[in-house]
TrEMBL record:
The keyword Transmembrane helix applies. PANTHER family: INNER MEMBRANE TRANSPORTER, S-ADENOSYLMETHIONINE_S-ADENOSYLHOMOCYSTEINE TRANSPORTER. It is found in: Cell membrane. The chain crosses the membrane at residues 12-31, 37-60, 81-101, 107-129, 136-156, 162-185, 206-226, 232-250, 262-280, 286-304. Belongs to the drug/metabolite transporter (DMT) superfamily. 10 TMS drug/metabolite exporter (DME) (TC 2.A.7.3) family. Pfam families: EamA (PF00892). Residues 9-151, 164-302 form the EamA domain. Keywords: Cell membrane, Membrane, Transmembrane, Transmembrane helix. Its main location: membrane. The keyword NADP does not apply. SUPFAM superfamilies: Multidrug resistance efflux transporter EmrE. This is Threonine/homoserine exporter RhtA. It is a multi-pass membrane protein.
Length: 317
């Protein structure tokens, strides 16, 4: 695999992290609304609306790219079912816990802890697919776990219900880590990245809908969101930021080795801390910054395969 080692290719990966960090802060801003926060299940509702709107954006994007035929063909190919499974882990499971964690411990702590997802994905791949973890990966996993424990202790002592939010953030990482393993398998089946993301958002939206109908029986807060122009605009902008993030991330994977694209993407934890400070005035502590860098570095090292690094060096020559 020849790596396109140019500035735009790396820029795609960096932009994916920037926009994902921004979308997380905008979600936190939504949850700061006192009326919305009074609805117990509002994080699940917002997660559903976020993915549903994103699905709408992707539909428009594919039609604009004249790929409407591919949209209808996805229902005929059974290989696309693997992306559906990945979507359930990444959407209703991962994203729901992500937003719940934001509600309890804020975007800074949530973004940092959820950045464990590459390490979790590597561990799942090792357990299920027998994918060997190198000693560098073991060191990275240990680093990420230690930093997360330090961060979790800090969150539990500074924020009410800190350990609950900490648990939700870890479950988010577990969902996203599972999604990485499953979707990587699916992408190897020659499913185009934009079609894969379209399938993901469609499946995720349907998964949320079924979850809400079965367990919540209603859609609390939706009428209030769309009756308020500022809130509805914020929701559409949040979903747009998340959609752009994923599109840049998949573009980076196409242009670079997945390991480099992921390394640039997990910088979202740093960008989220910065955006949180600038937009919602969430304080930045030295402890948060250091653990943020530690978790991101540990997750990256865990997902590193020495053979990929060797291959990368050869391709760059």
């Amino acid at each position: 695999m020849k790596v396109n080692n140019n500035i735009p290719a790396n820029f795609y990966g960096l932009l994916s992290g920037i926009f994902w960090g921004l979308s997380g802060v905008l979600l936190a801003l939504l949850l700061k609304n006192h009326t919305l926060s009074s609805y117990f299940m509002i994080p699940i509702i917002i997660a559903f609306m976020n993915d549903l709107i994103s699905f709408g954006y992707m539909t428009f994007f594919l039609v604009y790219k004249k790929k409407h035929k591919e949209i209808f063909s996805i229902f005929k190919d059974k290989k696309n079912l693997i992306i559906v499974l990945a979507a359930i882990f990444g959407g209703p499971i991962g994203m729901s816990f992500y937003i719940l964690a934001i509600k309890y411990i804020g975007i800074g702590y949530t973004a940092t802890i959820s950045a464990l997802y590459p390490a979790v994905g590597a561990l799942i791949s090792f357990i299920i697919l027998k994918d060997r973890i190198h000693y560098i990966g073991l060191f990275g996993l240990l680093l990420a776990i230690v930093c997360t424990m330090i961060l979790g202790y800090s969150a539990s002592t500074q924020i009410v219900s800190g350990w609950i939010g900490f648990l939700f953030a870890f479950l988010c990482a577990l969902g996203w880590g599972s999604e990485v393993v499953i979707s990587s398998y699916g992408m190897n089946k020659n499913i185009p990245s934009d079609i894969a993301y379209f399938i993901r958002q469609l499946s995720s939206s349907l998964g949320y809908f079924i979850l809400i109908i079965v367990f919540i029986h209603s859609f609390p807060g939706v009428a209030y969101i769309f009756s308020d122009v500022k809130l509805s605009t914020l929701l559409f902008i949040t979903s747009l930021a998340a959609t752009v993030s994923y599109l840049f991330y998949y573009r980076a994977i196409e242009k670079l080795l997945p390991i480099r694209a992921m390394a640039l993407n997990i910088t979202y934890s740093v960008w989220a801390v910065i955006f949180a400070y600038l937009i919602i005035d969430e304080p930045i502590s030295i402890n948060l910054l250091l653990t943020c860098v530690g978790v991101s570095l540990g997750s990256f090292l865990t997902a590193v395969n020495p053979r990929d690094i060797k291959k990368l060096r050869l391709d760059l020559k």
